[in-house]
Amino acid sequence: MKRKLLVLTLFIFILFSFGCNLKNSAKISDVVVETQMPEIKPIPKKSHKWYYFTYDGFKQVSVPQKAPQVLLKPWTESIRISSGITIGTESFLTVNKLGLLDCEPQNENQAKLAINSEFFANLTVDNMMSLDGIPVFHVYKNPEFNSMETKSNHPFLVQFHPDSSVFMPLLFTEDLDYSSGIEVSDVIYNDSEWTITLKSADNSKKEFEYLSFSSYESLINTEPNKRKNVITTTEISEGEYRSKLLPKNFNQAPERVKSLMTRLPQNFEYFIEVAEPNLGIKSSYIKKSINKSEEATLMEAQVLLNDTFSLAIFTDGTSFFEGSVQDKYVVNNGKTVAFRLPKLPMGFSYGTIAVEKNILYVAWEEKLFYEVGRTGFLTVDLEQVLY
Q1: Element containing residue 53 per DSSP (H, E)
Q2: CB burial class (10 A; 0-12, 13-18, 19+) of residue 73?
Q3: pLDDT digits 0-9 by tens, 105-139
Q4: Angle CA(114)–CA(120)–CA(123) in degrees, nearest 5?
Q5: 246 to each of 6, 82, 184, 359, how far by Cα in Å?
Q6: What's the whole-model pTM score?
Q7: Domain ranges of the chain
């Protein structure tokens, strides 16, 4: 979500409407009806399960609105799924303020939650990436919403080792020759290059710096006290940083993504975030008419490109699938299959997605502007839906 808020400064009328303009939000399923496209079937009732987050884990619930009420909090301080990544055949989801979900099915297709207070309780957990096959995620403190004291030398990158469920620091600002009082408020990772925003604050003003860095040896395999020696840094301008955030035109999207969207009317407009296997950091694309009214709402979708399938899920649950789940044949002769996740109540929406074997995980949350209430995830057995 933080990445969207950063892009918001450049495309405010696009991204503000995703989470906030709920009353005027166009539903993609309505477009399907209006254009007389083939009916999008709802998923079978027995194919899915709902879960909500508690202060120390998650529990099953019949529907999201039956989850216990919680106080609205700024999204940086809420227990919510904040990012996801697929590495090989394994998928992981970070749960802000709580821990990390290892999506490998356990106990009747239930994910395993690794809880960690050191890096989660007083910090905000942001996007994930993969380094040498290991999940790595960004953490930071948002002083606007979080006045709790934290260690001044907390890392800004943390690694997670699935086999042992152990969290370990990866990089500190000191490794980049900056003091421990500097906060890394944003991290962009693209292949082997990192781009970060460094924020210092005093009593009167905040100052930002922008930095790119890379390592000529594996950060994961380098001893902690030697990582500083394998890193090279370059200062960049604010303009260079912003250019890395701008969504690309949909015409530049991967062909697999374009194929997924062929079922939609040509004039349908949207913003999508695309995650490819093993990378974690998402690429964003926008399909929008120059003459689009700022009052109109663009739909948002999460897209996952797996080795054997492509999957897109819009915030209202409308979904498109091409390919095959693990160890199964290709669905519909390779043509796009559409299905619809259960309809959420007003004020709720779907978010980050992940797939482990044949189980789809979809984050859901209740939100009002920048605040978040109840949150959780939906699991869907894709074999029951597609075969």
Answers
A1: strand 48-54
A2: middle
A3: 655 556 899 999 999 999 999 899 999 999 999 99
A4: 165
A5: 9, 20, 20, 32
A6: 0.89
A7: 2-171+247-386
